[in-house]
Amino acid sequence: MLLTGFDAFGGQAINPSGMAVQALHGRRIAGHRVVSAELPTTFADAPARLVALITTHRPALVIGVGQAGGRAALSLERVAINLIDARIADNARAQPVDEPVVRGGPAAYFSTLPLKAMLAGLQRDGLPAEVSQTAGTFVCNQVFYALMHALATRRGWGRLRGGFIHVPWLPEQGTPSMPLADIVRGLRAALNVALTYRGPDLALPAGAIH
Amino acid sequence: MLLTGFDAFGGQAINPSGMAVQALHGRRIAGHRVVSAELPTTFADAPARLVALITTHRPALVIGVGQAGGRAALSLERVAINLIDARIADNARAQPVDEPVVRGGPAAYFSTLPLKAMLAGLQRDGLPAEVSQTAGTFVCNQVFYALMHALATRRGWGRLRGGFIHVPWLPEQGTPSMPLADIVRGLRAALNVALTYRGPDLALPAGAIH
Amino acid sequence: MLLTGFDAFGGQAINPSGMAVQALHGRRIAGHRVVSAELPTTFADAPARLVALITTHRPALVIGVGQAGGRAALSLERVAINLIDARIADNARAQPVDEPVVRGGPAAYFSTLPLKAMLAGLQRDGLPAEVSQTAGTFVCNQVFYALMHALATRRGWGRLRGGFIHVPWLPEQGTPSMPLADIVRGLRAALNVALTYRGPDLALPAGAIH
Amino acid sequence: MLLTGFDAFGGQAINPSGMAVQALHGRRIAGHRVVSAELPTTFADAPARLVALITTHRPALVIGVGQAGGRAALSLERVAINLIDARIADNARAQPVDEPVVRGGPAAYFSTLPLKAMLAGLQRDGLPAEVSQTAGTFVCNQVFYALMHALATRRGWGRLRGGFIHVPWLPEQGTPSMPLADIVRGLRAALNVALTYRGPDLALPAGAIH
Predict the structure, then answer these.
(1) Residue positions of B annotated with a catalytic role
(2) Mutate to test the interface with D, among A71, A177, A185 (most CBs of D within 10 A)
(3) Predicted TM-score (pTM) above 0.90
(4) Contact, B107 vs A106, CB < 8 A?
(5) Per residue in C108-125, pLDDT tens?
(6) How far is the alpha carbon of A19 from chain D, nearest alpha carbon, in Å?
(7) Domains in chain D, number
(8) Runs of H (alpha helix) within chain D
(9) Domain that holds residue B152
């Protein structure tokens, strides 16, 4: 399976998403070997790099991981939207506003992961976790949308499943935060459920009132 | 134009969305008379009631308004998703989990309002405002999706524009909050821009990093 | 009565506390004329400037006002502590850490204002308000402590009453925020209660669980 | 050393503070055996129970631990204030408002722990931690104040050091939260520094702007 993180952006020195996926590189989870890679936090390059990685490795499962400063839990993203609206510049100093990820693409794609089963697994392990209804409008959402669009439209990729997980800051970046060991443990648990869970997803309420 | 609010839900005694739209009922904004109505906070009835109101009044513009406890600003909603996941029961004691708003409908619709111009107008008036990337997965999002789906698919409704605005609690409901007079003033300013703004929307960054 | 605000600090262009007190300068509230002044956001000068103003004007009531970015309501401060711990530099580039406001002074002073009656008055006017248990450890808390220490220890000042109120950002500074008109209206309402309320304060629960 | 937690309150089924201190009972940290005890969340009984425990065990160090739902980090409390203002009823259905913890006692006591050294130790271990300027106005603050007052006024107790630490919810209680293993690990690290650190505390900025 393929697991991607990002490099540091927004003036920060580190990005826990890149560190956490690196820690899982080469591990076997539920019989699948994890291939980890770091994507650049740039609108121009990240989606193409992701598609190239999928073409090379042909994984059964692709999960993007990104940093969500300000969130206090592992966030299982539900939906990717066809919109870029950058509040800050990316690492190539680009700051597109109100552009589509894919011109002419559908407004959104839902994750094809069993999010509620993954949520239950994380809760069982005593880890802070939640389902999120927005992955934002920056590079994380762009990569998530580009991933789901590729899986939906590329020939022979229809059986691959994909999704996105946001992780909190590390403690040295500010509050709220999560220790790196917990992030790695949580990703491992989430991947394990995503790789082994069969049947319709659990009907566990985890939405947002607004 | 048609402006809808909701009745109280979730054990609260009041709902500022219903109170605020009522305060604008019958007013003229930019030459358009405002028709205000209160929708029931029930999955079973709210969308049909909204469609009936549009059929009766044939407005040029339809804006749904809902309460967002925990938000500190007027939230101009960007996207409605085809998903219901109720964390609490609605006013008819229904609590659907992971069901579509419209079976077979697209994953999402974007608002067709000039959100950035509306945001700029609210900021010019010194009112707390933001663009939001999620209207949640409760009755507000359901009504927003049902509205955009009806405008997109019903014969002759293609020229109507629609959107959704979330408003904070009133001060007596908790913190953060906004005085009712500010909510009413903000809706009035937002409607005025929505009714009069022409041309492509402003390219003002207002997205979310995550 | 004397009402003080602060100048802008921390890289911000404005400070709503200074703007709001200026808007009330010269007004009469409950028969008392308001004298407003702006203090510098510097540890070295702010307390002495405040004491000089009291000496000059001999007001019956002294209320310091400061900006609290991140708070969503008018905050009636309950307690000033004898501690400076500056997370950022002040406007004179000083950044003292873990120093007392007054060497040898008591650990804290409570406000001598009728905070609960003021809270009730603000709520009656539909304004977001709360009682706060900490004024921080920056210049606001220093001025609040210095004020209460002066009132407690200076000869003939024992009948003066004093306190401190934190106000949110203006909408142009970020979220959460409060329109300037609401801040001014809230200060006016709070001062009115502080000047006219007699008897023991209301026994209205407004504490914090933690 | 003595380490106290609380029983569940406020309609919750569990209290992580009681669970975490129990996990450390009997352990040796820096050569000191930990005696853990659970206090009742009642204004009437908690302080007396704490004083009885100190009398029995004569520890060199006493740290109270409590639950702070809504906080995202281990909070090293800086100051205890002589005030009770209960927003909810305690476990004996008492809800005192604006009463002192100790009639005639000083307004506040500062913790006598090396908070900045403890903060640095927690950060070194990659755990979310912060210094807090308020322990609230409920039973936690009451116990913290009663502890510091006893250490300051009881004959022969002057050499004992004391303080208070707030811990987040567990993941099953809501967001933000911290896994129990991290809370236990963090308390252990904090106690270790408190027991071994010598000399003046580190001059590490960790205050609040407001």
Answers:
(1) 77, 140, 166
(2) A177
(3) yes
(4) yes
(5) 999 999 999 999 999 999
(6) 14
(7) 1
(8) 16-24, 46-57, 115-124, 139-153, 180-196
(9) 2-209
